[in-house]
Amino acid sequence: MTGLLARPAALLRGALLAAAAFVLPALPAAAQQKFESAGLTVTATPSVSNDYLFRGISQTRNNWAVQGTLDVQHDTGFYIGGFVSNAKFLAEPWNDTRQELDALAGYRFTLADINFDIGYIGYFYPGQEKAPGTQLNEYHEVAIKANYTIDIVKLLLAYNYSPNFFGRSGAGNYIEGGADVTLPYGLTASGRLGYQWIQNNPRFGTPDYLWYSVGLSREIYGGVTGTLAWYGTNISKSECAPLPERATGGQRICEGRVLFTLSKTF
Questions:
Q1: Which candidate in 80, 128, 197, 236 could, as Cys together with 173 as Cys, close a disulfide (CB 3.0–4.6 Å)?
Q2: Which residues lie below 8 Å from residue 130, measured CB to CB, with a gap of 6+?
Q3: CA neighbours within 13 Å on the CB side: how many for 243?
Q4: Which CATH class is domain 2-264?
Q5: Which residues pair with 102 in a beta bridge?
């Protein structure tokens, strides 16, 4: 029991160290700092979660995730950034992925009180070796996001397109909508609903699918935010695996689950 309790604490320390590795060389004073002369705002967000869920599907085979996000934005609205996380997909020899590194770039602007974000996302998996009969996981997306706030409600909408989606599975189209609602006692309620279309479903490992989440978040102490949410998909266990693993009954990475996250933005 002691080892189980110690593991989340060790992961949180690891997240903080990962964020420090991201930003300390460039930010000797603080992880978020406005450089007035350059017109830059730098933001770092380390986090630790009991899973890494991407569009409702576990990227760590239902294990803990330590992550860090870096965002550098100019006053003009142009930005670059990065995201890093541990990852684990199919068991060897089918896939040996152990980490994910995303590259982010784009332009944010406001038009008629609607905030827009048009950008690029590159998903990379350093160290992956292509096993016989498999595909490299890395892929690229272009995305457009918009949000609009009405009193205590923030509405969100996003569309992503990849010419060759995860695992070389052909064109991928994705749409997501959601809302964040500010509640009393410092609470924020959130809900998301997304749908993913994939051209080559057998290679990706699932049919086209829907996912959803509902959750609550609140600052706990010293700027650390805790989020508790339920995630689910409409993918059955038998549908959740690429061939040949599907023949053994599929995987549990598409099943509904509770996600708990601790994060802090600097």
A1: 197
A2: 136
A3: 6
A4: mainly beta
A5: 83, 123
**Cα 204 from chain centre:** 18
Using only the alpha carbons of the chain, give its radius of gyration.
Answer: 19
- CA geometry: angle at 104 spanning 49 and 138, to 5°? 75
Q: Which residue has the tokens 């569009």?
A: 55
Give the pTM. Answer: 0.84
CA 247 to mean position of chain CA atoms: 29
Q: How far is CA 63 from CA 102, 121, 259, in A?
A: 20, 24, 11
Cβ neighbors of 229 (< 8 A, separation 6 or more) are: 190, 213, 214, 215, 216, 258, 259, 261
- Positive or negative, the Cα torsion across 213, 5, 186, 22? negative
Q: Which two tokens stand for residue 221?
A: 């102490």
Query: Which token pair is 128?
Result: 């992956």
pLDDT tens profile 231-263: 999 999 889 987 555 545 568 899 999 999 999
* Contact of 208 with 171, CB cutoff 8 Å: no
In 10 A of CB 189, how many CB atoms? 16
